[in-house]
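Amino Acid Chain and Its Fold in Token Form
===========================================
What this section holds: a protein sequence and its matching fold, both as plain text.
Structure line: whole-number tokens from a learned vocabulary of local backbone shapes, matched to residues.
Purpose: to set a sequence beside its fold so the mapping can be learned.
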Amino acid sequence: MDRSNTFTYSHYNKDDNFYNNPDLIRRLPINDDFLPKQEPFPDYNNYIHAEDIKVKRYIGSGVTFISLLAENLLSHPFVVLRRQCQVHQNARKYHLQPFTLLPAVWRLYQHQGITTLWKGVGSVLLVKGISLGVEDVVSKVTPWPKEISSNSSLKHFLQHTMLKCVSLATVTPFYSASFVETVQSEIASEKPGILDVFREGLMRLLHWGSPTNGRMLPIWALIIPTITLGLAKYMFSMMVKGITVKILVARSKAKYEESGALPKDPYNSEIQDIQLTASLVATISTDILFYPFETVIHRIHLQGTRTIIDNLDTGSSVLPILTNYSGALDCYESCLLNEGVCGLYKGFGALVLQYSAHIALLKMSHWILTHVGNLVSPNPKKKPDVPVKVSPPAISNLTTSRRSYLLP
């Protein structure tokens, strides 16, 4: 074996004048395996992707919660204004556009304060709770499903329809009592208690065929129109939501196919956004389409209750509601005859204001939550610092331009 070019640690001492001999240094073997290297990160991109999905899910859940809050609480003042316009059969101003309501609302606030727009909110939530409770109880004591999907059989669909009918029929008397609380003027009526909706609802239920007041319609005359409207709105909303979801999912898939990367997780935050958008589109479409029929139902529910409402023609006075309809069909015909087609859309401007505020709130909350999520999520362009593993040099005071390391 030729040992002329072989060196051992025993050769490298000061006696051999190694440090001062550049020829020896140039002859040292150099192994690139000992150069500074960082460890690879095969799972770092997956980690970033998983964290990004988690943050987006939190954002989607937050926006969904805010939408639920806006639908049940923040929209109530617009519901109050809309209902007061719908039941005023002699109104001079129809308030079909949003800006015509603003002066009346301002004068209403000056005379009665901001709480007048929140009247009846407690009873409205109680009625919704009763409806959910009835559906839950009936679904447990019967084989009727509480929820259905596009894959459900015709039998399950019909059973689910019966469940909704029972729920609507049960809450009808309580809905009437709650509706009165939302439209009556606070300055001309006694402030109702929290549980008065149950007392008034039971009173209407007990007087099934003979109401206490002469013009008040019996509860059986209200149940059929209420069930018909409620069921039609529910079915239409479910249909629109299903179609909207399919359209948005198809657009999302097409977008990913163009980019050449399909998402691995089909239940990511984008599904939450799609569901939220579809629900909002379905709700808005349903309220617009069935608005005239809702006006009719509200008028027959209020008839004979001796309710005094705020006059939204001026915003500073009150007036009683006195009607004498024999039923829903008579109310519809009388409205067309005396008020025209636009009379069925009284207060439509309040509906526009309601959903304009709802959409603006969702946009703002999504923007805020997205920026907060960007602050707390890891930066994919910045990898964490990892210590560099370097083999200690055998010679520490070399002055050459390239660092050399000795093999053991």
User: Anything to note?
Assistant: Strands lie at 308-311, 317-320. The radius of gyration is 36 Å. The longest strand covers residues 308-311. The CA atoms of residues 236 and 380 lie 44 Å apart.
